Structure formats: structure tokens, C-alpha cells
Amino acid sequence: MSHSPSATITARIRTLALAGVASLSLAACASVPGANIPPGSPITQAEAQQGAEYHQQFVQEFGGEMTGPHAQYVQQIGQNIAVQSGLAQNRNAFDVTLLNSSVNNAFAVPGGYVYATRQLVNLMNNEAELAAVLGHEVGHVAARHSARRQAAAQRNQLGGAAIAILSNILLGDSTAGNLLSRGALQGAQALTLSYSRDQELEADGLGVQYLKSAGYDPHAMATLLQSLAAQNQLDAQLQGRDDATIPEWASTHPDPASRIQNALQLAGSTTGVVNRETFMSRIDGMIYGDDPEQGVIEGRQFIHPELGFTFTAPQGYYMVNSTRAVSVNGDGGRAQLTTAPYQNNLDTYVRQVFASLSDQQQIQPQGVQRTTVNGLPAAYGTARVNNGQQQVDVTVFAYEFSPSQAYHFISITPAGQSGTFNSLYNSMRRISATEAQNVVPRRVDVVTAGGGDSIASLARRMAYPDAQVERFRVLNGLFGNAEVVPGQQYKIVVRSN
């Protein structure tokens, strides 16, 4: 959750839900740039203009742009692989951005704009894998996949689809549930979530082609996909989920196992450089996981040292932190903490949040109740809503932190079960200066394995209380019977001093 809430961050459910729709419909009232351009053709002026127009929106959706040596390295590799596509002859025609996000993600948009999150870069184990993920995304642009999706959506009356998407996210399915299940899925990410199986495989193929032409080992595409699948499966286990067999970065992409085999076949017997040691030295020290400036998740606790509060998710629920909201997810319902403009009146604030939830049906709470939670003035209300399949309860629970700043949870549960999140609501509190100072980021520390080192010995140095071996294996791409090799470099995650 961003460290700079203001009146400009409306952060309503409607805004969050439609952010992705907005990017799908960049040209809903006009022709779509690139839709009729042959794959592989150079970037057009219209595409460049479109990418530039939305660049800052995408950056803001994913925590902001990182600068410094880590970002410069990613930019260099991204430009070198992107120029292999033929979209432009000058590598400087591509704008490659390293995003300050703890989500594994990468995407590219028309106009030569390529993005990767630091969390995804940290998952890589060599430069060839970094080039592979960036090359895959450039492949989508070269094949004009996004433009073709936009054109198809325009033909299928995207406006109506937007309403349906909003209804689905807000009102959930028969188990109360798609609300916020992706943790405030936002604009830029939506550009990569609806590619067809054929489009994904085509982008893999183009990425492998770019790797070969750049002199990299094309097998890096397969090892990259393997690491992504393993990381997402580990995340699912740590969060108590059993529904995450596909990488978050590729959550509607084809089955990763089939993609791995396809990538291996495409690579064939071709070899090339991987630049492992160079890569390791260039990512050493990069922040890993949540950035304290955006708040951090520690087990079931969320703590934001800059905004000065903390809360705890109910037992059995897991959290996802995004730039504009924190979502709390579980089988019994979904909740999200965010903020909206506040003018020193909690009752009005709660009613305005309800009013902002839908353009199609007026949602009003049965009443607004006042209370105090750990010294914070609070107000809440619940509305019973029919989602077309069943009755569900939508609750808004707001807290006043100052006359000009409030935060609120929005939750959705099956009818009659709005009390599911009572422990969550009652856990919100301010934190002390000492608590805030104790929140420090984790970082990647590249170490060299000694003669007596093993996976177990290096894993014990991971700054986590649980699953140290599993985390170490996935972070370093050590699958099956793989062991550490003395003299080789590996990544561990440590606390910053």
C-alpha cells in the first residue's frame, strides 16, 4: 500500500476494478493502434504515443520506478533483447523500467515500453533468464497481441463487459467470492492477463528467437518458467492455498508444464551464454519482498511504518499488498484496506464509499454505527446485496486517523456472515515510533558456497522463520536432487542493517 495517500488516490473498489478495464479500452472510441499492422513491423508513431500516454499510469500502479545501478542493469539487458525484435533499430527506442513491486510480474505495451518488477528479477538466476522474460513480453508487442485484444474487445462492446467485470469483482460468485481475490488487480497488469494460449506460446517462441539472436542460451526460457511455477506453488503453500499451480505472473497463461516442454523444444540443441556471475553481482543488495515504504506483511500481520498503523488477518486468511490497497483473502470472504478523500466526517465517508461501489445499483448500508477501536474513532455499515445467485453482505469499516485522513476496509461475505472479519476490524491500531523503526527491508545477499556448505547450511541464513530450505531452493532454481556447488554463487535473503 502506497506511502503517499491523498485526495488524488480515490482507491474505491470501482476505481480498482475498472482500472484494468480502462487499459483494455485505451481506444474504445477510435481505431486501435497496431491492430492491423503485420507482426514484427516497426513501432508506429501512434503506438509510441499510446505507450507514452499511459506510461506513468502503469508505473504508479506497480509501486513506482526504481533508479540506480539495479535499474540501469535491467534497462541495459531489456534494450539489448528488445532490439532483436525488429520493432526499432535503435536500442534507445525502448523504455525499460524496473518497478518497485513485490509481485512477480513483467509486461510490455505498444510503443516500446517494457516493465519488470524487482521481485521477478530477484527470482532469476542468470542474465539469460532476465533476457528471456523481457523478450517474452516484447514478443507480445511485436505480435501486436494487445492491439488485437483491444480491437476484439471493442467489437464485443467493451462497455458492457466493463459492467460485467465490475459486478463480478464487487459482488462475487456463489461462494462470495471473486471480490479482491487478486489483491487489487490494476491497470498495467490487466494487459497481460487475457492473452490466448496461442498468443502465449507465440510470445514464448519469439522470446526464444530473440535469445538466440542475442547470443544467449535459449534454454533460459524453460528454466525461467520452471522457477515461476515453483515460486507460485511455494506462495500457495505458505498462504494455505491449494489453487496456485500457475505463476501469478502468468495467471491465465497456458499450463506451465506444457510451456516448459514447448520452450525446451524451441531451444533445441542451441547453446549460448547465461552470464550467471555478472547477473548475481548486478542484483546483489536489491530489496526483496515488501518495501517498508509501502507497508510489509509479516505472517498474518500488516504493518506500515510510514503511515503508522498495523492490523492482523484472521487465522486461515492470507494477505496481498499492492500499491493502493491490501487485500485479505480466504474461503469465508474477501476484504481490502484502502483509503479515499476524507473531510472529517466518518458517517459521510462510509456512505460515500458505499455509493462509489457501483454505477448500476445503489448500494446503501442498513445504517452507520459509531465505535472506537484501540483509541481510533471508527464507523461501519453493512449492506445486503443480491449478486444474481445469492445474497451477500458488503461491509465498510472506516477509521479516522486525523481530520483529513481515514482508512477503510471493504469486505464481502455470504449473507449473515459479516462477522467473519470482526477480529480484523478490531485489530487496527496505531504503532509506536519504536515499532516503526524496527521495520526494515529484506535484501538479496549474494554469497559464495564454501566447501562445507549445503542447501541446509545456506538456507539457515535466510531471514524467514519458516520454510527456509524451500525458499532457498526456489530462489536459486535448485530443483529435484540439485545441491549447492562449492565456489558457486547463491542468493540468500537477509535483513538490512
Q: What portion of residues belong to β-strands?
A: 15-25%
Structural class: alpha+beta
Shape: globular
Largest sheet: 7 strands, antiparallel
Radius of gyration: 23 Å
Total number of domains:
3
Instruction: Provide the low-confidence segments as ranges.
Output: 3-32, 153-193, 244-253
Q: End-to-end distance, in Å?
A: 23 Å
Residue share in helix: 25-40%
Output the strand order for the largest sheet: 8-9-10-14-13-12-11
Protein name: Peptidase M48 Ste24p
Signal peptide: 1-30
Domain Peptidase M48: 71-264
GO molecular function, one term: metalloendopeptidase activity
Description:
- There is one protein chain.
- By secondary structure, this protein is α+β, with helices and mostly antiparallel strands.
- The chain folds into three domains: 13-288, no CATH class; 292-437, 3-Layer(aba) Sandwich (Protein Transport Mog1p, Chain A); 442-495, Membrane-bound Lytic Murein Transglycosylase D, Chain A.
- The protein has 17 helices and 17 strands.
- The chain has helices spanning 13-24, 45-61, 69-82, 118-123, 127-142, 145-155, 158-171, 187-190, 197-214, 220-239, 256-267, 276-283, 346-355, 422-427, 433-437, 455-459, 468-475, and strands spanning 95-99, 106-109, 113-117, 287-288, 296-298, 301-304, 309-312, 318-321, 326-330, 333-339, 369-373, 376-386, 391-402, 405-414, 429-430, 442-448, 489-495.
- Strands 8-9-10-14-13-12-11 form a seven-stranded antiparallel beta sheet.
- The longest helix has 20 residues, at 220-239.
- It is globular.
- The two termini are 23 Å apart.
